[in-house]
Write a structure and sequence with these properties.
111 residues; mainly alpha; 2 domains; 4 helices
């Protein structure tokens, strides 16, 4: 059978599905590493199980808080990219859509 090749299209971002999958992998990684630290390290052999469980929960919650703070601090779109998008939009308006300048409208009103 012969199939036509799919035409490549631009995407705005990685996609919600992949974003969720990567977040799930990060969460599983944090849980696994916190469990390894809390329950298998020799430094915590003399701790009671409740203290180890508290350490595990503390590590997991600490990582979640840290991730949330980073998510709030990291800008989705850098300012340079915003400026470049505005420039591309301006050029498209002027060259392709033939949108007149505001000054052009003013000059026409005078005549």
């Amino acid at each position: 059978m012969i199939y036509k090749r799919v035409f490549p299209l631009e995407a705005e971002d990685i996609g919600e599905c992949w974003n969720r999958m990567l977040n799930a992998i990060v969460t599983l990684t944090v849980l696994t590493n916190a469990a390894l630290i809390s329950f298998t390290m020799k430094q915590f052999d003399d701790w009671f199980y409740a203290y180890r469980l508290s350490l595990f929960i503390g590590i997991v919650l600490g990582c979640r808080v840290y991730k949330s703070i980073l998510h709030l601090r990291v800008v989705e779109t850098p300012p340079e990219v915003v400026i470049q998008g505005e420039r591309a939009s301006f050029i498209n308006d002027k060259l392709i859509r033939k949108v007149p300048d505001h000054a052009d409208n003013f000059a026409m009103d005078i005549l």
